[in-house]
Specification:
Shape: globular
Largest sheet: 3 strands, antiparallel
Number of strands: 3
Strand content: 5-15%
CATH superfamily: Winged helix-like DNA-binding domain superfamily/Winged helix DNA-binding domain
Helix content: 55-70%
Structural class: alpha+beta
Number of helices: 5
Radius of gyration: 16 Å
Order of helices and strands: HHEHHEEH
Length: about 110
Amino acid sequence: MIEVRYPFEMTFKIFKRKWSVLIIWELNQKKMRLSELGRILEGCNEKVLIETLDSLIEYDIVKKRCNNGYPKYVEYSLTTLGKMIVPILKEADDFGKKYIENLVSDL
């Protein structure tokens, strides 16, 4: 079991990797293959992307499904727990929009 003093620390443990939040945000839109995620997340190299996805899989935020048919491919999607994070990200997105508007209006 993971020990934390405050429950919100667990959320920050999940978000600690640079690309975690963006991966969750994008997978909320639809299931994706590694290459598709890589194209969307400009600046994230494949090694880091795979490591971050593996971390999110360990936390049961993302699931990986292998299709062994033809063509073979791997697809990533959010788990039930992963979908529970999305409202937090939407709140953060709303805050960011309001923050930017306030910065612009103060200029």
